[in-house]
C-alpha cells in the first residue's frame, strides 16, 4: 500500500523550493495511493490537488482545505461523494471513470456555493435514467456538467420534474446496489472454489493451453506459460468493479517487478587493488588535480565536485600511501608517490565552487643544505655596495686578449684600448660666431 508521506510531498514540490506549508498546487497522480491523508495538516494553502490514477476508495481528510479550488480524483475507486462540505472555495471536481453508484450523495455538494463544474463521465450513476436532469436540479450553482454547459431552459425543465426524478433515481440506485452485492458474492464464491489463499480469481490459465515446444525446452516453456497467462488474464471478461481494477493493478505491478529483476544489470565487483598494490580509480570520471607543494612539503588534491551537491554525499579517506574520495557512491582513488601523515591531513569544500580540497603533509621532512656563513656575508656586502651605487663608476668591463671573459673587472686607470681603430675626432662648434656665455638663460 502506497501512502502519502512527507518525502513524497517534498519531492513533488520542487517548483516551490521543497516548501510544503506554502504549497498551492501538487500533483500526486499514478502513485498507487490508497488513502488521502496528511494533506489537510501539512498543506493548508492548497488550491489545486491532482490525485488521478490511484486506488483511492474514499474521499476523506480534505475538509480543512479552505482554499482548495480544483480536486481531480479521476480513475480511482470512489463509490460515493462525501466529506467536501469544508472546501469552501471548491470550483471544479473531476470524478471521471470511478464507481459512483450513489447518485443521491451529490446532494452533499449543495453547500459548495462556488462549485461551477463537475465531471462524472464513466461512473455507473451516469446510466441512470434522468441522471443529467437530476444533477442540474440538485445543484443550482452548477454551470457545466461533463463538459457541457447547462442552459437556462434545461435548468427550468429539470427543476420542474425534480420530485419525480428523485424517486426514479432512488429505485435505480437500489437496483444497482443489489446487483453490486451479487457481484461481491460471486467473487467470494470464485475465490473459495479456487482454494488458494491470495490467488487472483481473474488470473486463470487453461490446463490444456499450449505451454511450449514439443522438445520440452524449459526456458521456452516458462516464457510461453507466462505469455499464455497474461493473454488469458487480459482476455477474460470481467465486470467493471473496484475489485477488478485492484486485481489489474496487482497483476501489472507483479509484471513490472519481475521485468525489473530480469533486466537489472549485474554490478561488477570493485577491484581497489591488485596483488596487494593499490590502483588508480576514477569511477565517476571527475576532474581532479594532484600537485606536490615543495615549499610546504605536502600533496594537494583538488576534486571538481558538483557545485550544488550536498556535502553528506562526499566521503574522504587519507591513507599513508593513497587517498580515496567517495562521491555519490563513485570512488576516486589515487596512489601517492611518497608517504603522508593521515592524522595531519585536512579536507575542505568550497562554498562557491563546490570543489573538494585535500591537503596531505608528507611524513618525511625535507632536508636542505646549510649555507656557508662567510660566503653569505661577502655576498651581502657586494649586494649592498651595488645597491647603494658606490664604486660602480670605478668598475668597467674589459675583454682580455688572451682569454675573452666578461667577468674581469678592473679599475678605470688600468684599462687599455684593445681596438686598432683611431679615436673619434673632437666635436666642432656649431658656428664661428657661437659664444658659450653662462650668463645667458637657456631657451625654453
From TrEMBL:
The gene is 100634723. Belongs to the tilB family. SMART domains: LRR_SD22, LRRcap. Residues 178-196, 370-386 have a biased composition (Basic and acidic residues). Residues 433-444 have a biased composition (Acidic residues). This is U2A'/phosphoprotein 32 family A C-terminal domain-containing protein. Its main location: other. Residues 128-146 form the U2A'/phosphoprotein 32 family A C-terminal domain. Transmembrane segments: none annotated. Pfam families: CS_DNAAF11_C, LRR_9. Keywords: Cell projection, Cilium, Coiled coil, Cytoplasm, Leucine-rich repeat, Repeat. Residues 178-243, 341-399, 411-444 are annotated as: Disordered. One of its GO terms (biological process) is outer dynein arm assembly. GO terms for cellular component: cilium; cytoplasm. It is found in: Cell projection, Cilium; Cytoplasm. SUPFAM superfamilies: L domain-like. It comes from Amphimedon queenslandica.
Amino acid at each position: 500500500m502506497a501512502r502519502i508521506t512527507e518525502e513524497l510531498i517534498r519531492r513533488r514540490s520542487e517548483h516551490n523550493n521543497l516548501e510544503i506549508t506554502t504549497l498551492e498546487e501538487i500533483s500526486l497522480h499514478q502513485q498507487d495511493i490508497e488513502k488521502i491523508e496528511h494533506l489537510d495538516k501539512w498543506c493548508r494553502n492548497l488550491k489545486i490537488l491532482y490525485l488521478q490514477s490511484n486506488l483511492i476508495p474514499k474521499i476523506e481528510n480534505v475538509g480543512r482545505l479552505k482554499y482548495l479550488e480544483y480536486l481531480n480524483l479521476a480513475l480511482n475507486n470512489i463509490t460515493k461523494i462525501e466529506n467536501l462540505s469544508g472546501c469552501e472555495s471548491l470550483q471544479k471536481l473531476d470524478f471521471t471513470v470511478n464507481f459512483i453508484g450513489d447518485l443521491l450523495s451529490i446532494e452533499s455538494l449543495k453547500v459548495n456555493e462556488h462549485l461551477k463544474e463537475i465531471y462524472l463521465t464513466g461512473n455507473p450513476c451516469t446510466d441512470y435514467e434522468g441522471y443529467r436532469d437530476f444533477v442540474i436540479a440538485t445543484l443550482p450553482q452548477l454551470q457545466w456538467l461533463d463538459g457541457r454547459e447547462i442552459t437556462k431552459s434545461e435548468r427550468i425543465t429539470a427543476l420542474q420534474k425534480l420530485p419525480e426524478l428523485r424517486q426514479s433515481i432512488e429505485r435505480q440506485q437500489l437496483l444497482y446496489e443489489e446487483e453490486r452485492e451479487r457481484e461481491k458474492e460471486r467473487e467470494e464464491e470464485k475465490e473459495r472454489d479456487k482454494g488458494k489463499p491470495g490467488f487472483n480469481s481473474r488470473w486463470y490459465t487453461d490446463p490444456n493451453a499450449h505451454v511450449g515446444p514439443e522438445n520440452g525446452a524449459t526456458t521456452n516453456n516458462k516464457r510461453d506459460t507466462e505469455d499464455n497467462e497474461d493473454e488469458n488474464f487480459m482476455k477474460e471478461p470481467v465486470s467493471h468493479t473496484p475489485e477488478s481494477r485492484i486485481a489489474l493493478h496487482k497483476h501489472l505491478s507483479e509484471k513490472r517487478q519481475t521485468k525489473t529483476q530480469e533486466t537489472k544489470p549485474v554490478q561488477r565487483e570493485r577491484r581497489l587493488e591488485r596483488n596487494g598494490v593499490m590502483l588508480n580509480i576514477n569511477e565517476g570520471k571527475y576532474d581532479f588535480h594532484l600537485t606536490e607543494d615543495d615549499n610546504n612539503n605536502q600533496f594537494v588534491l583538488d576534486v571538481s565536485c558538483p557545485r550544488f551537491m550536498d556535502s553528506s554525499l562526499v566521503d574522504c579517506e587519507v591513507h599513508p600511501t593513497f587517498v580515496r574520495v567517495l562521491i555519490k557512491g563513485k570512488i576516486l582513488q589515487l596512489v601517492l608517490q611518497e608517504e603522508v601523515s593521515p592524522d595531519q591531513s585536512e579536507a575542505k569544500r568550497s562554498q562557491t565552487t563546490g570543489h573538494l580540497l585535500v591537503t596531505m603533509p608528507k611524513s618525511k621532512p625535507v632536508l636542505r643544505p646549510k649555507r656557508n656563513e662567510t660566503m653569505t656575508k661577502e655576498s651581502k656586502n657586494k649586494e649592498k655596495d651595488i645597491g647603494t651605487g658606490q664604486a660602480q663608476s670605478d668598475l668597467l668591463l674589459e675583454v682580455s686578449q688572451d682569454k675573452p671573459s666578461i667577468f674581469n673587472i678592473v679599475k678605470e686607470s688600468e684599462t687599455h684600448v684593445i681596438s686598432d681603430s683611431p679615436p673619434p675626432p673632437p666635436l666642432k662648434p656649431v658656428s664661428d660666431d657661437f659664444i658659450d656665455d653662462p650668463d645667458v638663460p637657456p631657451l625654453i
